[in-house]
């Protein structure tokens, strides 16, 4: 967002540049954006449909995955169509209210996804370390409270910042060298504590797994965590790297910072349903049944 002062009239319309210094390559850059969106939208929608309609997938792990898929749809839809409009039609103008709304949706959804990944780590911890108590710990009442807590944390964290941002004036310039309105500093809210807790969860999980005497049982336990670990790396990896480059990479070209921020938006929503579809047998069986009903 532009730097604010109080010496003139505040801008009410801003102009998004897309990828700065690469304007002549926008048409080529739009291809991965388009592929990401046409993969993420049907992929996550199919995942939600299967989980909500198949009684065999009513376990907490799949309900949390359904929440993650919903957040991915919101994140993709809030950002990628606008980026494509900039790349294809040079439609970069955005009002201040719309810009602040987009910033709120992006970062509240980002924090929600981080919270969901943390909850999924807790789910795997209970399933592996206390398997006999799994159904008594993760009751429907607790799941509802978890969902409400994740939502309240994400919206509550960002709302106060957005409220203060709304009161500022923006007078220096109205050019935003990006494809969407964002503030990378807000991502720190979702990174530090959640990453630490997820790390602790998997440390306890690994300690339990390596004490299992049966090799087949160890392999099965680790396999149940494989999809989640891949999604964690896809989500936090680019985000942490983007934060670090913003903090320490002052010599890095601006378009690199923008590309990294877009990777955080493009990659997880596109690959999450693919990872869970391939690595989770129950989901894969249901996907093949829905897409190829006549194949036995």
From TrEMBL:
GO biological process per UniProt: cognition
Coiled-coil ranges per UniProt: none
Lineage top rank: taxon: Eukaryota
Chain segments annotated as transmembrane: 27-50, 62-91, 103-126, 146-166, 186-209, 221-244, 256-276
A single GO cellular-component term on record: plasma membrane
Chain ranges of the G-protein coupled receptors family 1 profile domain: 43-276
Membrane topology annotation: Multi-pass membrane protein
GO molecular function, one term: olfactory receptor activity
Keyword Transmembrane found: yes
Keywords: Cell membrane, G-protein coupled receptor, Membrane, Olfaction, Receptor, Sensory transduction, Transducer, Transmembrane, Transmembrane helix
Compartment(s) of residence: Cell membrane; Membrane
Homology family: Belongs to the G-protein coupled receptor 1 family.
Full protein name: Olfactory receptor
Annotated organism of origin: Rhinopithecus roxellana
Name of the gene encoding the protein in the UniProt record: OR52B4
